[in-house]
Design goal:
- There is one protein chain.
- The protein has one helix at about 1-35.
- The protein is an all-alpha fold.
- The protein has a domain at about 10-35.
- The radius of gyration is 23 Å and the shape is rod-shaped.
- The relative contact order is 0.07.
Length: about 60
């Protein structure tokens, strides 16, 4: 019984570590999206792509 408890603890440690890595990566990704929307970056509304000028020269 003692050995099964050790295996269970190791399993929980591995699963907890993977969950922490996944959650942390999403938190970093979210904060990087916030940094993308700074006023001087030229991006509007959270879009990564910049607008291409229209061929006729008019603004959208």
């Amino acid at each position: 019984m003692g050995r099964m408890g050790g295996v269970a603890r190791l399993f929980i440690l591995i699963v907890g570590g993977l969950v922490a890595i996944i959650v942390g990566s999403f938190m970093i990704r979210g904060s990087m999206h916030l940094w993308d929307n700074e006023p001087g970056s030229g991006l509007k509304g959270g879009s990564r792509r910049q607008k291409r000028p229209r061929p006729d020269g008019k603004d959208n």
